[in-house]
Amino acid sequence: MTARIMRSLKLNFPYRRQQIPLVDYLLLFLGMVLLLAVMYTLKQTMSKITYWEAREARIVQQQKHTRQPRTPMARINKATQQELKQADDILRQLNLPWEALFDALELAASEQIALLSLQPSVSGQTIRITGEARDLAALVEYVQALELEPVLKNAHLASYKARQDHPRRPIVFSIIATWHESL
Prior knowledge:
With about 180 residues, the chain is an alpha+beta fold. It folds into two domains: about 20-70; about 95-180, 2-Layer Sandwich (Gyrase A, domain 2). The chain has four helices and four strands. The chain has a four-stranded antiparallel sheet, with helices on one face. Strand 3 (about 150-160) and strand 4 form a beta hairpin. The chain starts with about 20 loop residues before the first helix and ends with a strand.
């Protein structure tokens, strides 16, 4: 058998007499600075996590309150319900296609007719037209012109009366018409 020759291993441990080089101190210092930086970042991250968890809890709490109505619908009194209905009626009147109605009335108008008022009823889609005509023939002609307008239908004379207090005796009239759903 052949004997193997082992080489001697040389380990160099620093003794007390041996000096530690400057590079070793620098590496130790950099390690400590890095450790302090990591600990500081960890502390900041933990405080941010705590802040966001508390904020999330507040938001969840607020959402629980907003899901439940403050005033149940059964407790709304009749006066409030009436006000809501009136507000809804006003919104429907504001959304009325006024331009198409005015165009139809202007196209049917003549110099012998003076319009005094327009009273729309949004719920029934009707409009009451009040005015004065110079004579009965002009009034009948105006009603026929309104019936021919594509926006209006079922235009009819609701009432008329000759004014006796005026020297020309104009006819005060009221016409009711329905406007189309397509407006």
